[in-house]
Design a protein that fits this description.
It contains 19 helices and eleven strands. By secondary structure, it is of the alpha/beta class.
Length: about 450
Amino acid sequence: MEFKNTGELYDALKGVVKKTGDEVEVVDPDGLKTGLLERVVYTAVFGEDGCRKGARSIIKACADRVGIRHASIYSLYEKMGRGLCGGFTVPAINIRGLTYDVARAVFRTARRLDAGAFIFEIARSEIDYTDQNPEEYSTVVIAAAIREGWQGPVFLQGDHYQVKPANYRKDRNAEIRALKELIRESIGAGFYNIDIDASTLVDLEKADVTSQQRPNFETTAALTLFVREEEPEGVTVSVGGEIGEVGGKNSTEEELRAFMDGYLDILGGKVKGISKISVQTGTTHGGVVLSDGSIAEAKVDFQTIERLSEVARKDYGLAGVVQHGASTLPEDAFHIFPEKGTAEIHLATGFQNMIYESPAFPKELKEEIYSYLVDKHSSERKEGETEEQLIYKTRKRAFGPFKRKLWSVPRERIDHIAGELEERFLFLFKKLNVANTLDMVRDTV
């Protein structure tokens, strides 16, 4: 359980942490790599304001002491864009629940495979429904790195920092201000990788592709300029753009060129632009849910990936294209992504599914969650949709309301779930060819 006050917190950490005024000094980093860290990170999430702040300061100070660094992947992607490295696809992992233990499983996987090219991310929408703001998410991931003895760069990414069309139509300036505030908050928390998604503004009813993409590239350029104003000295935040909303029609070379030419024209060579670009290739976030709650098999247009990645690198110096909505794809698809030059792949729902469907997940808690979803989200049920379909598409929304209960699941059950996830991460890291990338990442970043 959490520490009740800062006095109790620092008493428990005597000999490990020394506090002088507002400064926190870690005198014994190994002393925190024990079960004691679990109480500190729990306090960093659930503690009262002052105690929560103290716990977060301790975690950050310890991370700094042992050589864990927030980092931008920009320089690695720059090398990919110049053809100086490649043959792998960077997994970007969204963690919606049990964040500390899932992140620990990721770091264990990375250590087993000597991997360094991987990203932790959270989307704008996920921040809300999982009740994890950027500072909390950053702190918990860093705590997991400490616990697993990680050293080196940690990539945190704001995923789908998306323009909400309804808000934009109602008050364009207010929506852009909200995104800027989120970007500022995220960079302050160590998110040195930001994916801007203004693809929701693309208007396919316009007569030509440039006109269709104009609100997208204009908004992306404006937010890129804001990122450059906010990034810390010595850091080039990796910025991503998006030309096709996931779940829509497949992207084309003409759309990519229209976006990039308009975007670069606005930047005018004054600042560094995006390092990668997300495209639509046939997937849907979370997959397509069948009536029994299972997922229909998706087909990815790998020819589109290969061609657009080639254009992105050759003509614009980008690392390549980004694949979204991939975690529920069939297992025999993943090895193809690095073969086709995919720079990055986003993985989320599949891990959520493994948590809920693990035999170690408490049956009573699952029943409570599913009853809550049927009660609170029945308005989202479409005509002809089964209860299983409703639960599948809404169960991501239970991670926030049930966060404390999930963190309080007995340790042996959490360890079992984390072990299952670790095996999945091993599979994905191997298929995506990010094993043995740690030295390259340390040398580049």
